[in-house]
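[AMINO ACID CHAIN]
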Amino acid sequence: NSRYIFIGLFSDTWMWSDGNSSSFRHWNLKFNNQKINSEKMNWEDALYYCRDHHHDLVTITNMDDQIWIQEKVKEASTPFVWMGLRYTCTLDFWFWVSDEVVSYKNWALDGQMDDCDMSGAMETGGKYKWFKRNDADMFNFICSKHPPGE
């Protein structure tokens, strides 16, 4: 029988590069124990694999998500890893397949134009930037799990 109770206050050493502290921890719930899928698939096959076996292709909505995922992609055997980021040429914008808003961005300045049949992939080394890649490219990928309560 414990004599202690938790009141929601904690000490934390994580902080943003600009010095502000970070107490956001939702990434633990979305990505806990999710490993890189070592199979090589095109973007569409990777999407359906994640939806059949887990929840969805990974979504990155903030710097905490980015840091968590870039640690995981180091295990990949391909130069890029698919994310759930897709371009629609008819409406001319990028969107997450999970319906999250594309607010946080980490694009490489690669000079590529947005084009049909393009999706987002994270490089598995370097600065872990996002690149626009053709859907037919064969890469490893990472799935997200069901959020709690679903």
